[in-house]
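Suppose you are handed a protein chain with no further information: no name, no annotation, nothing but its sequence. What can you learn? This example shows the usual starting point.
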Amino acid sequence: MVVHFPIALMFTAALIDLIGLAGKLRQAMMTGFLLETLGLVSLAAAAGAGWISEHAVVIKSPAVLALLAAHRRDAILTCLVFGGVWLYRVARHREIGIGASWLHFAGMLAGLALLSVTASLGGSLVYEHGVGVATLVGTLAA
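A reasonable first move is to predict its three-dimensional structure. Written in structure tokens, the prediction is:
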């Protein structure tokens, strides 16, 4: 369940920042920063939940193991990109306040692209390959 929070928060943060940048609205950019911060926290929670889940299942298929490795790699890259974008924004705080910049926004777009790929791989693991999904065989017969 927790994986949906960073997706929603980061996409919303980028949208609010875009509105703030386009309209030079300081309050919108501050809201975008808050959403980005919450998104980063939820991204860490999702990464932790993913690590726990990865170690709770047994996967024998080489194809699924490769997909899981790609998902893990992309999740780490996503965390690094969003973390770097957040640090860049915080570092600029002394200069111009917590507002967004177009360079920051470009970093957010890169993070959103990675987040989308990571989410797609995770969805494939669960919905196409059933990783971590309990079957109902035996439960229905009981």
